[in-house]
Every structure is written in structure tokens, then in C-alpha cells.
């Protein structure tokens, strides 16, 4: 499990990297170009990026857009207020904001939320899905929720809709078949993250997936 850390201040990047490394493997990027290359090469449990990185100060937005396309969660680091960050990034919205100056506990708690989410989804995917309790969410889509918030989703071949279920921010793993989200395809036992808001979801061959919502 790995976190992508994007920060052009070398000393700050080193310090943050040491903290994050207590919970996950870290890949560091000191520029927008390095971050985009990393996103092409690997999938991350979380992308942590400074808002104003880059010559024009627009790097945070560029990285957020790229991570969204790759179905990966993004936390923005900034001295601006959360409201100002959202305004700068609109229509995109980060999955978390780490306000500067931050305490050690703040960054540890941030990373722990997303690492734990992926661990929970991966653990659930190793279990057998429930045999009973399934209900029809939409045409060709059935769901069942287990105690603790684990949600199973089964989609029939050829189904396409805005989203399997409306859960806000959540981690998913395809257990059987394949699922395509706005052109990004995931097959058996591949983890991905869906941010809040509508996303075009489809499956050609049908799929079984398991999901957990990101805790507040």
C-alpha cells in the first residue's frame, strides 16, 4: 500500500514523508510532472499534494484532475481555508484538506483514514458475499449491506448508470468480472476510489464488487 506525496519544498517533503512512512510506503514527487508520471505508473491509497505547487500555482488542481481520472483519492495541503480551497478547485472537490500549519497528529489521522479504508475493502473482498438479503437498487443492479457498513454490489452484463449506489466517498474492489468508470477499467481484485458526485459506471460482462464508505 502506497501514498503519493507531492511537495516542491524539499525539507517539508522529507519531513512529511517520514511521518507518512509510519503508516504506508511513500513515493515522493517534487514537481507536477513527477506526480503525473507517478499516477501513470502506480495506483495509490492516497495522493497528498500541495495546492500551489508549480510555477503558476495551479499544480494542485492539475494533480487532482489526473488522480480523479485514475480513481484515486486526493488530500490537498494548503494554508488557505477549506472553503477557499474548494473555490479554487471547483468543479472538483478534494477528499480531504490538510490545513497549514498542521500538527503531527493531523497528517497521521489523515493518512490512517484512507489506508484503513483500503484495508477494510481488501479484507471484505476475501470473504464470500452474502447469500441472502439482496435487494434491487435499479434495473440490473442488486445490493446487500452487511453489519458494519460493508456493501456488496452485483451488476448484470451490459448495465450502465450514474453510479452503482449513492454513497458519497467510498472505496471499491471488483471481486468478479470488470467495471468501467468513465473509461477507467478495473477487473477482479483491483481497488479503486469513487469521490462524491455522479460518475458514469458500466459493466460489459457483469461484475461483483464490494464497497466501504470513507469515515468522516
TrEMBL record:
<dbReference type="Pfam" id="PF00072">
    <property type="entry name" value="Response_reg"/>
</dbReference>
<dbReference type="InterPro" id="IPR001789">
    <property type="entry name" value="Sig_transdc_resp-reg_receiver"/>
</dbReference>
<feature type="modified residue" description="4-aspartylphosphate">
    <location>
        <position position="50"/>
    </location>
</feature>
<dbReference type="InterPro" id="IPR050595">
    <property type="entry name" value="Bact_response_regulator"/>
</dbReference>
<dbReference type="GO" id="GO:0000160">
    <property type="term" value="P:phosphorelay signal transduction system"/>
</dbReference>
<keyword id="KW-0597">Phosphoprotein</keyword>
<dbReference type="InterPro" id="IPR011006">
    <property type="entry name" value="CheY-like_superfamily"/>
</dbReference>
<feature type="domain" description="Response regulatory">
    <location>
        <begin position="2"/>
        <end position="115"/>
    </location>
</feature>
<protein>
    <recommendedName>
        <fullName>Response regulatory domain-containing protein</fullName>
    </recommendedName>
</protein>
Amino acid at each position: 500500500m502506497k501514498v503519493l506525496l507531492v511537495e516542491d519544498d524539499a525539507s517539508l517533503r522529507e519531513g512529511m514523508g517520514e511521518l507518512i512512512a509510519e503508516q504506508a510506503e511513500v513515493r515522493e514527487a517534487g514537481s507536477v510532472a513527477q506526480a503525473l508520471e507517478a499516477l501513470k505508473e502506480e495506483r495509490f491509497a492516497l495522493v497528498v499534494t500541495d495546492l500551489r505547487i508549480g510555477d503558476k500555482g495551479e499544480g494542485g488542481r492539475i494533480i487532482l484532475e489526473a488522480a480523479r481520472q485514475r480513481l484515486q483519492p486526493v488530500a490537498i495541503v494548503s494554508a488557505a481555508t477549506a472553503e477557499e480551497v474548494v473555490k479554487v478547485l471547483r468543479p472538483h472537490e478534494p477528499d480531504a484538506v490538510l490545513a497549514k500549519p498542521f500538527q503531527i497528529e493531523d497528517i497521521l489521522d489523515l493518512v490512517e483514514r484512507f489506508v484503513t479504508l483500503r484495508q477494510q475493502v481488501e479484507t471484505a473482498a476475501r470473504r464470500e458475499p452474502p447469500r441472502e438479503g439482496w435487494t434491487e437498487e435499479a434495473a440490473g443492479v442488486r445490493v446487500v449491506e452487511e453489519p458494519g457498513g460493508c456493501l456488496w454490489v452485483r451488476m448484470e452484463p451490459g448495465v450502465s448508470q450514474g453510479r452503482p449506489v449513492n454513497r458519497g466517498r467510498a472505496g471499491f474492489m471488483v471481486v468478479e468480472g470488470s467495471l468501467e468508470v468513465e473509461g477507467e477499467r478495473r477487473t477482479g481484485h483491483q481497488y479503486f476510489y469513487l469521490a462524491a458526485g455522479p460518475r458514469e459506471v458500466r459493466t460489459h460482462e457483469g461484475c461483483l464488487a464490494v464497497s466501504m464508505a470513507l469515515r468522516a
